[in-house]
User: Fold this.
Amino acid sequence: MLSAGALSAGALSACAGHHVPMTEPSPAASAPVAAPTHAPHAALAWADSVLATMTLRQKAAQMTWPNLFGDYVATDAPAWRKLSHDVGDLQVGGLLISVGSPIEIAAKLNALQKLAPLPLLVSSDLEFGAGMRARGGYFLPNGIDLGGATVFPPQMAFGATGDTTLAAEEGRITAREGRALGIHVDFAPVLDVNNNPNNPVINVRSYGSDPRLVATFGRSFIRGLQANGMVATGKHFPGHGDTDVNSHLGLPVVSVTRERLDSVELVPFRAAIDAGVGAIMTFHGALPALDSTGAPATVSPAVLTGLLRGELGFHGLIVSDAMDMRALLDRYGPTRSVKAAVEAGVDVLIQLPDAPGGGAAAAVDAIVAGVHEGLYPESRIDTSVRRILILKHTLGLQRNRFVDLAALRTLVGDSASRAVAQQVAERSITVVKDTLAALPLGRLTHGARVLSVTIAHRPDLAAGATFGAELRRTFPALRTEFVDADDPGDTPWRILQEADSADVTIVGSYIGPSDHATTVSAPATITAFIQQLVQRGARPILVAFGNPYLLQQVPTVPAYVVAWGGLPVSQQAAARALLGTIPVGGRLPIAIPPFAAPGTGLQLPALTPPAVTAGAPIGGH
Assistant:
């Protein structure tokens, strides 16, 4: 546990407009985060002393965490002026940081911490490691990867490895890098059980379809993360896995019995609470078995106060999912959504809609109005703010809220951390079928005619790049083609002619879940193209970098490989697996009905030596 620093007059009067005394930046803290039921006396005393100085409006602001990008902005830019107002004048309690380069994120957060009367709790979605957000992106038009923090494959890849120690390692590395960037709360792990293949938004973000597997991997990640000084957030309570509606776009309804919820959806959350998870994020979806009114869980007292607090005994932070999602806004609007969420038991509101009637200031107004209207007493607000303040003290932010920019390069994205991510990616590659014994491709000559077709959304600049580069090391004459998943045009039919003259055709699909997806299914043009390849005798090898259930749409492909994610680390692993330079041992942590059961996965040894006789035909392991 972090030792409690001595309270100062500045700390006690911070909410009256004074600044907490600030120390010099230091490397990221690595002390463990205690379970929320075991807050130290010093943290309780500090929280209560600060709370006693706060106005109702200042308390409401602590519950409101606006979002920002980690981009460069000048101090006179409108975006910076708004942030400065939210942090310095409105006195919000925390922030949700999104994409940016590591240095810019850390520098921007340091600058905002300097403006804040009380230290800010900074949160971020780091489901795939700190590199999910803290990366420099790609410089156009050259497509130069600007690097960044360590990025891991999606959670389902971990399930495919069968090794929970890797999830704990991801937690450790994410906490180390995240704290170095100035981030304290990770909105991970996803504890949803993805037992619906048509789920357009969870999919590979889940560890799998078995609640016990999800619970075990989630618990390992939580312990790895919190043992290294970062708060974990289990999401989306009480379960977003069994739905085919994207809550960003509409209201999902999980129409199952309470008994089913107890045996499936709630299993990982119970395990997370037992493991001392510091925060839980809500689900913008209705569960009639828990609340007959049809209210989404985020605004349901029965779900949050009755089930989560009362029955399951959770005492940490309850964080809303993004408050700008249509599942809430279409039914309640921005003001009523805020009031209803607070009334239900939410402690922290994130990603508030900007307009109309939105933003951090409007949310603060709504929280205060709820007290004046008698929807909830001020003591209800005090309870949430006390939790927030206790967490700030537990993390040592009352002593030092800054990070050391000079230390970033020694803590973020180092070779040892990247090696762990690469190990996860390589061990996760799963060969679901290979009916013609086409793999590994490393048995072919270097002069073999190999065609690699990438199917992706046009903005996905990374799709196929690393995969193609790795294949070209073995096959210098590799030909590559790109098909725009949104507007394929006549490209697929032109590629059919190329496939006729190829020795091997590999199709990599990067179509997968997203915030804007209504379905994870591939468009009819794409599936028709793959079926044509099969019918013309091209014997395609289909690699699913996006949706692992793609086999359901094209079951006749002779070879089907699941890579679980389209990030460079997974692309490189998939290419190496196809070539035979690494062994293949991944197993499905899901079912692909009716074609593959959980646990399916061919076990293929690596080639020794990497390439053998010239002109070796495809066939035979």
The chain has two domains: 9-408, 429-579. Confidence is low (pLDDT under 50) at residues 1-29, 610-621. The two ends are 54 Å apart (CA to CA). The first helix runs from residue 9 to 12.
